[in-house]
Amino acid sequence: MSDADQPTCSQCNSNYPYQDGSLWICPECGHEWSVHQASEGSANDETVIRDANGNPLQDGDTVTVVKDLKVKGASSPVKAGTKVKNIRLVPDSPDGHDISCKIDGFGAMGLKSIFVKKA
User: Fold this and answer.
1) What is the rounded average pLDDT of the residues 47-68?
2) Rounded to an integer, what distance in angstroms lies between the CA atom of residue 115 and that of residue 119?
3) Averaged pLDDT of the chain
4) Dist. CA 117–CA 115, nearest whole Å
5) pLDDT > 90: what percent of the chain?
6) What is the set of domains in the chain, with CATH numbers?
7) Can you give the C-alpha Rg of the chain in angstroms?
8) Is 114 in a helix, a strand, or coil?
């Protein structure tokens, strides 16, 4: 495959993804996608946000936090197992926090989808 045919990462726009079997892997952000998705290119304009298990998320879903998350300015972390109801997806967030939500005891905050699973 020539350099002109090599895809860029859809998450961080890195020019350095490599192919491993049937997957493309970005060494900079760790994003993985199938060879089929890479050949489609930008034909699919809608970005699908997936949880830690690969399940697609939608606005209004309830998710569960999969690991303790430190919160800046808070004395305690968001504990693993915390349920978060009525999430809102923010696909083009510049800081990578693609879920906007309210968590009891913490208030409004952003979460990364890799740290939650669909409930």
Assistant:
1) 92
2) 13
3) 83
4) 7
5) 43
6) 7-41 (2.20.25.10), 62-118 (2.30.30.40)
7) 16
8) helix
Identify whether the C-beta of residue 14 lies closer than 8 Å to the C-beta of residue 29.
Answer: yes
pLDDT reported for residue 21: 76
Which sign, positive or negative, has the C-alpha torsion 5, 114, 102, 71? Answer: negative
If pLDDT is split at 50, 70 and 90, which confidence band does 42 have? very low
In contact, 18 and 25? CB cutoff 8 Å: yes
Can you point out the beta strands (E) in 28-106? 32-34, 63-65, 83-84, 88-89, 99-103
Neighbour tally for 2: CB within 10 Å: 5
User: Contact at 8 Å (CB) between 52 and 10?
Assistant: no
Average pLDDT over residues 6-13: 78
The whole-angstrom separation of Cα 75 and Cα 77 is 7
Residue 26 to residue 37: CA distance in whole angstroms: 14
pTM for the model stands at 0.61
Local confidence band at 37 (pLDDT 50, 70, 90 cut-offs): low
Q: Encoding tokens for residue 42?
A: 């930008």
